[in-house]
Amino acid sequence: MKFYFMHLMPYADLDLDYDQKHNSAWVTLPNDYYDPRKGHALYNRYLDELEHADVLGFDGVCVNEHHQNAYGLMPVPGVMAGALARRTKNCKIAVLGRALPLLNNPLTVAEEFAMLDTITGGRLIAGFVRGIGAEYHVFGANPAESHDRFHEAHDLIVQAWTQPGPTSFEGKHYHFQYVNLWPKCFQSPRPPIWIPSQGSSETIEWAAHPDRRYTYLQTFTPAAMLAKYMQMYKEVARRYGYEATEDQLGWSVPVYVAETDEIARREAKEHIENFLNKFLRMPREMLLPPGYLSLKSMMGVMKAKGSIGMRQSIDDVIDKGMFICGGPATVREKLEEYQSQIGFGHLLSMLQFGTLPAELTKKNMEIYANEVIAPLRAGRASTARAAAE
User: Fold this and answer.
1) Is there a contact between 365 and 5 (Cβ–Cβ < 8 Å)?
2) Beta strands 193-197 and 215-219: pairing type?
3) Cα 18 versus chain centre, distance
4) Which terminal CB of the chain, N or C, has fewer other CB atoms within 10 Å?
5) pLDDT at position 287, please?
6) 105 falls in which pLDDT band (50, 70, 90)?
7) For residue range 19-62, what is the model confidence (pLDDT) as tens digits?
8) R_g of the chain, CA atoms, integer Å
C-alpha cells in the first residue's frame, strides 16, 4: 500500500457564521469573505506542509481542482504542482485532477502535465476528473455533455502524449489540425493516469476497460459504499477477462492521529465538524445538477453522498468509516482492516481538513508517518518476505 498526503487547501480563516446569510461555501458565497493577506499566508503554509510530507517519506502528495469556493483554493492545481516540482525530491506529485469537460482546449493540460513530468524527472501522476456538479454552475457548462466531453478530451490528451507528432484530431467537441506536443512527457509512453470519482458506474466501467486499466479513486465515502464500488471495479475487470490489482484502486479519506484515542478525538472534533458542516455545505442541486449522472449512478451516489448538506458530527463520520481518528494503534488497525477487506493499493490521507491549524496538522503528519505508515510498511514487507520463502 502506498501512502499519500492529499491537501484540499481550504480557506481555513473563513468566517464560520457565513451560513447565517448564505446557504453554501461554494459558488455563491461572496468573495468579500476572502482576505488576500490571509490567503497569502495559507498558500505558503500549505505548500510547506506538502513539502514536509516529502521529508517524512510519504510516497506522494496530491493537489486538486475546485472553483469559486472556500473548500479548496486550487482553481489551477498545476500552479501548486509546479511550486512543489522543484521543492520536493522523492515523492510523486498527483494532480487530482483537471476537470476535462470544462476545458475549451485540453491540449493545454497535455502541455502542462508534460512540463511537470519533465521538471520532476517522471514523478507526475496525472488525474482526470469530470468535476463535481458545482463546477458546472461556475462555468455555465452543460452537465449533460460531461461524459462525452470528458472522454473526447482524454482521448486527445493521450494522443498528444503517445503518438509522434504532428497528428490531427477531429471530434465532436474538439478539432485540431496540429497535435504536436513540445515538450513530450518524461515518462514513456505517458504518466500514470488516475480517475477520482464520486461513484459513477459509467466511470468505473470506463476506467476498468482493458485499454485503460486506470487507477480508480473513491473520495470521501462511507466504508460500506467504498467496498461496493471497489468490488464493482473488480467485477468489471473480471468481465473483461483480467484481475484488477491493488494498484488500480485507491481511497481518499480524512485522518487524524494523536497520542491516544481520547486526545485525537478532542483535537480533531471542532475541525472535522467545521469541514463537514461549513466547508462542504452546498445545496443538493449544486452537487448533482440534472444531467450530470445517469439515473443508475445518481441513485448510488445519492446513497454514498446523501449526508452532504446535512449536519454531521465526528461520531457520524467515524462510525461510517468516513473519518479515521484515534491513537496510532487504533488508526493502524482500522487501515489494516479496511485494506484487507477492500484491497486498495493507494491511500490518500487528508491530514489537514477544514480549520485544522498548522501545529496540529504538523503533529498529525509526523505521528502518522512515524507511528502508522512506518509500522504498516514494515509489516507488509515482513509478510512479503515470508510469502517468498
Assistant:
1) yes
2) parallel
3) 26
4) C
5) 86
6) very high
7) 999 999 999 999 999 999 999 999 999 999 999 999 999 999 99
8) 20
How far apart (Å, rounded) are the C-alpha atoms in residues 79 and 46?
A: 13
Domains of the chain: 2-388 (3.20.20.30)
The C-alpha cell at 156 is 486527445
Preceding amide of 183 cis, omega within 30: yes
Q: Terminal CA-to-CA distance of the chain, rounded, Å?
A: 21
3-state secondary structure string across 60-77: EEEECCCCCECCCCCCCH
Q: Which residues of 343-356 are buried (b: 16+ CB within 10 A; e: fewer)?
A: bbbbbbbbbbbbbb
The answer to whether 80 and 73 have CB atoms below 8 angstroms apart is: no
For the record, the C-alpha cell of 304 comes out as: 454514498
113-131 as b/e: b if 16+ CB within 10 A? bbbbbbbbeebbbbbbbbb
pLDDT at 316: 97
Identify the pLDDT of residue 379: 85
CB of 98 closer than 8 Å to CB of 65? yes
Nearest-angstrom CA–CA distance, 279 and 247: 31
Residue given cell 453522498 in the structure block: 305
